[in-house]
Amino acid sequence: MIDDISSARDAALAALSLAATVDALDAVVGEHLGKRGPLSSLKARLGSLPTVDEKKAMGQVLNEAMQSVAAAADERRALLAAVERRARLDGERMDLTEYRRPARRGHAHLVTEAWERLEDVFVGLGFKVAEGPEIETDWYNFEALNMPPSHPARSMWDTLFVDHGPAGSTVLRTHTSPVQARVMTTQEPPIYVVAPGRVFRNETADATHMPVFHQIEGLVVDRGISFADLAGTIEAFTRAFFGPGFTSRLRPSFFPFTEPSAEFDIRRPDGSWLELGGCGMVHPNVLASCGIDPEEWSGFAFGFGIDRMAKEYHGVDDLREMYSNDIRFIEQF
Ligand code: DAH
Questions:
Q1: Is the pTM of this model over 0.85?
Q2: Pick the residue with more confidence: 294 or 57?
Q3: Pocket (CB within 6 angstroms of ligand 1)
Q4: Cα 314 to averaged position of ligand 1 atoms, centre (Å)
Q5: I want to staple 143 with a disulfide (CB 3.0 to 4.6 A). Which of 30, 108, 139, 306 is the partner?
Q6: What is the pLDDT confidence band of residue 101, given thresholds at 50, 70 and 90?
Q7: Ligand 1 centroid to residue 137 C-alpha, Å
Q8: pLDDT reading at 212 higher than 80
Q9: What is the pairing mode between strands 273-282 and 258-267?
Q10: H helix and E strand count, the chain
C-alpha cells in the first residue's frame, strides 16, 4: 500500500507542476485531493488493514502524502498568481511614447492678444493705460456720465446689479466709460489715457453678443481739443491696428456723455463697413461732475468692444466660439 500512496502522491505532484494557470492548478487539486481522488480512495483501504498499528502507521503515511501535495499546491498557486498578476499589469501598462507629439506652443486668448495689441497701438500714439474696478457704483457708471437717476438713456445698457449697499447703488460696470470719471476725478489734465477692461450686460449670448465682454475706452482732456483731433486719432488707430488698407468714418449718434456724439465704422479693403464703437466730445457736464473746468479744458472720448475687434481681425463667425475653449478652434490661430 505504501507504494500506492507514493505513486498517487508523485502523480499528484507531477500534475501540479504541469498546471500552467491558477485555474488549471485548482482543477488538478480537485482531481487528486478531492473526495473521489486516488489519495482519498486509498483512505478507504485503510479499513482493510489487519492491525490497529498498521492502520495508524499507514494512516500517517497517507496524511503526510496528502499534506505534501497540499503544500506543493499552495506554493505553486502563489507562484502562478504572481505570474498572472504581472502579465495583467504588463497588459494594462500604457505605452506613453505612443502619445508623444512634436512640442507645440500655445498662445494667448484671441481677446488677450487683441487687448495687448490695442494697448501697444495707443501707447505708441502717446496714451497711458488706466484701470478701474469691475464692480462699480451707480455714480461712476451712470451719474458722473451725465445720466442722473432715472435718465432714460440708462436703458441703453442692460444692467446687472450687485446686492450691496442701497438698492441699485452698485452695478457690474456696463461699459469702461466709468474709468473716464475715475481718471478725471483723480488726475489733472492734460489727460491721454486708454482703459481696457471687462464689462457686463444682462444679455443672452449670441453670435455677436456676450454677457461678459471687453471694451477699451479712450479719453483725452487738454486745451483746445477739437473734433478733428478725435477723427484723426480714430483714423491713426485704424491704420495702425488693422493695416494701411483700412479707413474709418464717423456717423452722428447719441451718447449722454458726449456732445456731439458719433459712432465710428471701419472700412475694410473690400469696401464693407464694420461698426466698431462710439465716440464724441466729452460733455461739459461730465467734465464739471469730475471737477474739471469745461471753460478751460475740452476733450474727446471713445469706446469700443475688444472681442468684436478680435472676431473681425481673425474672421471668426461667432463670438461664442472664442470662449468655447475647443482646441480645434484655438489651434487655427
Ligand atoms: N460706453 C459706450 C458703450 O458702451 C461706448 C462709448 C460711446 C464710449 C461714446 C465713449 C463715448 O467714451 O464717447 O456703448
A1: no
A2: 294
A3: 175, 177, 217, 255, 257-258, 277-280, 301-303
A4: 24
A5: 139
A6: confident
A7: 17
A8: yes
A9: antiparallel
A10: 11, 10
Alpha carbon nearest to ligand 1 atom 4, residue: 175
- Counting atoms of ligand 1 from 1, which one is nearest the CA of 300? 13
Query: Where along the chain do its domains lie?
Result: 2-98, 110-330
Question: pLDDT digits over 162-173, tens only?
Answer: 999 999 999 999
**Which candidate, 220, 256, 254, places its Cα nearest to that of 142?**
256
Pocket test for ligand 1, best of 279, 285, 306 (most atoms within 8 A of CB): 279
Confidence (pLDDT) at 265: 95
- Beta-carbon contacts of residue 96 (< 8 Å; ≥ 6 apart): none
| Residues 287/184, Cβ–Cβ less than 8 Å | yes
CA 127, chain centre distance (Å): 32
Q: For the domain made up of 110-330, give the CATH fold.
A: BirA Bifunctional Protein; domain 2 (3.30.930)
Of ligand 1's listed atoms, the one at least distance from the Cα of 257 is 13
Beta bridge partners of 258: 255, 282
Q: What is the DSSP string of 75-97?
A: HHHHHHHHHHHHHHHHHH---GG
Helix (H) or strand (E) holding 186: helix 177-186
Distance of CA 274 to the CA centre of its chain: 30
Nearest residue (by CA) to ligand 1, atom 3, is 175
